[in-house]
Design a protein that fits this description.
single chain; Ribosomal Protein L25, Chain P; 7 helices; 11 strands
Length: 235
């Protein structure tokens, strides 16, 4: 099924954004009368029919608004230090969107190898993943902030810091309580410094393990995201 994204879409006649119109008419060569699906990124899906096949402002008719399947009774956020190679961070964003996440917070720490982020590009990656997985909600991406500012940001729920250390024995899957909001911090390639871990703990974060395997930053973030979702989907 072809899925297109129209921010704030509502039932009735509307137009596809220019990039979506081009993809619909020029790339997929869809013609008037063809049907597809539209997501508004705010929780709803629509049945859509192409009314006017214009390559820059295609007109569509939206009907049958319905809540998507990707609604859950808790908030899931991952805070991650962007990786040296952008494509690895983008891979995480794609997979997290497919698995299900509410927000990604970006931060820099003392071991960060990347101190800039193209948030607009990251959001486009998540839009594509949302459409591919037929989701109705577009996760948010927050711009880079220093680690000491990040850990002081408000969050109502359980807060974890995934840290590689011999003294960290408790796994995220054992510490997390089903149904509660969760925020998990994932460090850069060089991991967190002991000072950063202490600062996080002083601000309510609980150190946790993601298992015995040594994971790349982006893999650890996906594991954390999937762990929380899987626990909440268990009977």
């Amino acid at each position: 099924m072809n899925v297109f994204y129209i921010p704030d879409a509502a039932e009735g006649l509307t137009t596809l954004p220019e990039d979506e119109s081009k993809h619909c008419v020029k790339v997929l060569r869809m013609t008037e009368g063809e049907r597809f699906c539209v997501t508004n990124g705010e929780g709803f899906l629509f049945d859509a029919e192409l009314v006017e096949a214009l390559p820059k402002r295609a007109t569509v008719s939206l009907t049958n608004p319905r809540k998507g399947y990707d609604h859950w009774g808790f908030k899931l956020e991952i805070a991650i230090a962007p990786t040296k190679l952008n494509e690895r961070t983008e891979w995480f964003l794609e997979k997290a969107t497919e698995i299900g996440i509410d927000k990604v917070r970006l931060f820099t720490s003392c071991h960060s190898e990347r101190r800039a982020a193209n948030v607009e590009r990251f959001q486009k990656v998540m839009v594509a993943a949302m459409k591919q997985s037929i989701k109705s909600r577009l996760p948010k991406v927050e711009d880079l902030v220093p680690f000491d500012k990040l850990v002081k940001q408000p969050f109502e729920g359980q807060k974890f810091i995934a840290w590689i250390d011999d003294d960290v024995k408790d796994c995220l899957c054992d510490l997390y309580h089903k149904g509660e909001n969760a925020l998990v911090l994932i460090g850069p390639e060089g991991d967190f410094s002991p000072e950063e871990v202490e600062l996080a703990k002083a601000n309510g974060f609980v150190p946790c393990s993601l298992g015995e395997a040594r994971l790349r930053t982006e893999t650890a973030a996906v594991v954390a995201c999937h762990t929380i979702q899987l626990i909440n989907q268990m009977k």
